[in-house]
Design goal:
Strand content: under 5%
Largest sheet: none
Low-confidence stretches: 1-24
Structural class: mainly alpha
Radius of gyration: 19 Å
Helix content: over 70%
C-alpha cells in the first residue's frame, strides 16, 4: 500500500470510529469545536517551531494532529446532520447556532491543512538557508497567527462577539510581517526552489490569520444557547 493510501485508510478509520448519535447537549458539540480550535492554535506554534528547527522527526509526529483535525471536523458535521434530520424539533436559536458552527468548522479544517503544509516543509530543512532576519520574521508570524487563533477560541468559548475588530488589527500586523518577509526573501541569495517554498510558507502563515478573522466575523452572529 502506498503512503497516501495508508494515510487515507487511517483517516477513513478515524472518521468511522468518531460517528456518534445526535446530542441534546450543545456543550458536547462545543467541546468538539473547541478541540478543533486547540489543534489549530497549538499546531501553528508547533509547526513554526519545527520549521525553524528543521526538526523532521517532530514534524512527522505532528502529522497525527492533522488527521485528528479531519476526524473531529467530520464528527461535528455528523452531529449536526443527525440533529437536523432527526424527528426531535430544535428551537430557532439552536438551529441558528448550528448554522454558525457549520460556517466556522470549514475555516478550522482548512487552517488545519495550512498547518500541515508548514509541517511538511519543516522536513525539507528550508530554515537552514534563511538569514537571521527571515527566521525572526517567520517566528513572529507564527506567534501572531497562533495568538489570533487562541483569541478566536476564547471568543467562541465565551460568546464574545466583539473579537472580530481586534483580530482584524492583528491581521493587519500579520500582513505587514508577510510583506517584510517577502522583501527579505527577494533580496537574499537563495536557491530558486528554496525561495519558492519559503514564499509558500509565508503565504500559509498569512492565510491562517485571514481564516481566524473569518471565524471571528461569524461569531458576531452567534446566538445564545438554544
Amino acid at each position: 500500500m502506498t503512503v497516501l493510501g495508508s494515510v487515507s485508510g487511517e483517516q477513513s478509520r478515524l472518521h468511522q470510529t468518531t460517528l456518534v448519535e445526535p446530542t441534546s447537549d450543545i456543550d458536547a458539540l462545543d467541546g468538539h469545536v473547541i478541540r478543533l480550535f486547540t489543534l489549530v492554535g497549538d499546531g501553528i506554534a508547533g509547526a513554526t517551531t519545527s520549521f525553524l528547527a528543521s526538526a523532521r522527526q517532530a514534524a512527522a509526529l505532528l502529522v497525527a494532529e492533522e488527521e485528528e483535525v479531519d476526524a473531529v471536523f467530520h464528527t461535528v458535521e455528523d452531529l449536526i446532520r443527525a440533529e437536523v434530520v432527526s424527528d426531535t424539533p430544535s428551537s430557532e436559536a439552536r438551529l441558528a447556532r448550528l448554522l454558525v458552527i457549520l460556517q466556522i468548522v470549514p475555516e478550522l479544517e482548512r487552517s488545519g491543512d495550512l498547518v500541515d503544509h508548514i509541517r511538511w516543509r519543516a522536513r525539507q530543512g528550508l530554515a537552514r538557508s534563511l538569514t537571521p532576519t527571515s527566521r525572526e520574521l517567520v517566528d513572529r508570524m507564527g506567534q501572531r497567527a497562533a495568538a489570533m487563533w487562541r483569541a478566536a477560541a476564547s471568543a467562541y468559548l465565551q460568546g464574545d462577539r466583539s473579537m472580530a475588530e481586534r483580530l482584524r488589527r492583528w491581521d493587519d500586523e500579520l500582513d505587514d510581517l508577510h510583506v517584510t518577509l517577502t522583501v527579505e526573501l527577494a533580496t537574499t541569495e537563495l536557491p530558486v526552489a528554496t525561495a519558492i517554498e519559503m514564499g509558500l510558507v509565508a503565504r500559509f502563515l498569512e492565510r491562517l490569520g485571514d481564516h481566524a478573522v473569518n471565524v471571528a466575523r461569524r461569531l458576531e452572529t452567534l446566538p445564545g444557547d438554544g
